[in-house]
Structures are given as C-alpha cells and as structure tokens.
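ingest -> validate -> predict -> emit
validate: passed (alphabet ok, no gaps, 390 aa)
predict: started
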Amino acid sequence: MNPLNPFFAVIIFLIAFLTGYIIKLKYKINPQNGRYETIDGVRGFLALGVFIHHSSAWYQSFQLGFWEPLKSNLYEQFGKTTVSLFFMITSFLFISKLLNTGNKEFNWRNFFISRIFRLAPMYYFSVWLIIIILICIGLWPEKIGMSEFLGSVINWCFFRIHLIHNSSSTEAASFFINLGVDWSLSYEWLFYFSLPLISILILKIKPKIGFIILSVIFIVIFYEIHDVVVYHIYSFIGGAVAAFLLKFTSLYKKIKDIYSSIIILICLFLIVQFNTAYNIYCQLLISIVFTFLALGASFLGLLKNSTLKFLGEISYSTYLLHAILLFTVFRFGFGLDRMYYMTPLQYCFIIFSITPILVLVSFLGFKFIEKPSIDKAKTIVRKLDAKSVR
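emit:
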C-alpha cells in the first residue's frame, strides 16, 4: 500500500469514524439547530478529505523533493472538490436564510457578529500555534528581525497566510506549517460581505445603506489584494442555485434517495477523471452532486449517521489544525530529513496513527474554543436585541 492507493483513504475514514464514535459515546455534541442533516454528515467527509489530500501531497513531496500537483486525480480532488463543496455549503445555508426571511427584516448586525465569533477564534488559535512552531524551529527571533516578523503576523491576522508570492522567510515557513488552508476563509469572508448586495435581489426589506457601502468597500479591497479564481465564485453560485431549488420547487419530494445517490456516485466517478476542479465541466458536476445532497440525498441514511454528524460538527477545527499536526509530527516527531527515506508502508502507518489524534484534537478545539465562542456570540446578540426592544 502507498498513500496514493484508494484504500489509504478508506482506512483513514474508518479510523476517523471509529475514533469519533468512541469520543461521542462519552461526550455528546448536539448539532446546531436550523441545519440540514445530510449536509452536517457531508462536512465530516470533506474535512477528512482535505487531510487525506495533504497527507498524500506531503508523501509525494518527500518522494520527489519538491511540491507539485498530485499525480493521482482522486487524491487531487480530495483537496479541490472538497473545498468547492465547502463553499457550496456556505452559500446554500446563508442564501436559504435570506430566502426564508420573508417579510421580516434580516438582522445584519447579528449576522456579522455570529460570523466573526464563528470563524475568528479558532483561526487565531491556529495562528498562535504557527508562531509557537516558528519560535521552536528557531526562525524567530534568531534569524529574522522584529519588523519582518510583525509584518507577517499582521498579514496572518487578515487571513493571508497563503499569500507568499512576495514572501518573507516567515511567510514561506508559515505556509508549509499550515499549507495555506486559510485561503478558503478569505473567500468565505468575500461571500459574507457580498451578502448585503446579493440580498437586494432577494429580501423584501432591503439592507440599510451602511451595510451596502461596507459590502462594496470590502469587495473592492478584496479584488485589489487577492488574485481571484473565478471557479471559486462558481462554487458559491452552485450553492445558491441549490437553495433556490429547495425553496421554490418540490424536487426534494419527488426524487427517491436511491436514485439521487446513484446520480451522485456517477458524478463523483466523472469528477475524478479531472486532475483539477478548476474546470467548468468539473464545477458543473460538483454542483449537481451538491444539489442532490442539499435536496436530501443521504445514501440510504448514511449521511444522517450521528457519528458522521459529530465529525461534521468538529470539521472546522479539523480543517484548520490538520496541516499543523502533520508538520509537527514530521518535523519534531521524526525529522523532515528522515521522512524522505520512509517506505510507503511506513508513511501510511504514520498517517493512520495521526488520524485518531487529529479527531481528538479537533474535538478539543471545538469543545474549548469553537463552542464557547459560538455561545458568546449568542449571548452578545441576545443582549443587543434586549437593548433594542427597550
């Protein structure tokens, strides 16, 4: 076996599922209200898919001595298609919220408060981990000055770890520590700040002018400092289309689970014929997959499994922490030089051993950082709403 063999991914999923099941027996996590069961289950697969992608990418880099796209379409799509589906989930959930607002006014203040407390705390915790690792490997303060280091940290605070094309040594090192996974969060913020403009076409009660101006300013700045990949925008459009279909059609009542599951499997087979998701035909196939998932396809109940929903609930921590965990194990556990001489089977067993640690760490991240932050946002929103009523 080697890390580009399909069984490598299957074993990781099984180990993660078993670990999640054991943790769930002792510590209950109740998914947030107002969410969609099958999508909660899908999240668990997606975050683990990114972990599998980066595990294979590290292996290939050790074999070749440099980084390049994976030679396996399947493992390349574990990184590309999964993130496209994450974008579709975000778009679907929040466009659905707008569509379901009806004659009420959408509370933009509460929306942005909840988003900040949902995404920022865990992200900034991961930044602190990166800083600690940089200190441990002796990059700072020995080898670089304070000004360069602080400049890099300021970049990271604005979700820009992935931007290393004019990089300093700290930015380059930080990228390899977390493999630049924050790039997707930048697009998430673009979507959130675009919603006031999008809502003009959806809401009966339009957003106040201040939120529209904020939206325009953010979009302009984003396009100035980022090289925008249009295919990521297509992903958000795909999620929005699914939201409209669910709201205004009865397709979810007419399509049987067995048929929709078969269609999804066919589409997934076609997707892995591509080496990238940055292709209009691949994006169309991914959109079809997501649409059926959003309409309730559950693979005969598999995606409603409580353990999968548990893995979905902790998926944000999994996404942010998995690359840091990989780097930590490779750098401090075995030594990067030694990793170049690992046999494929040895490398597989290392990743299999890391998998339960990742699930446990992700659970702890959710329990002690994500969940308290979510609850704090709810408390703030309640207090602000109470003041508004007075």
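The chain has one domain: 6-389.
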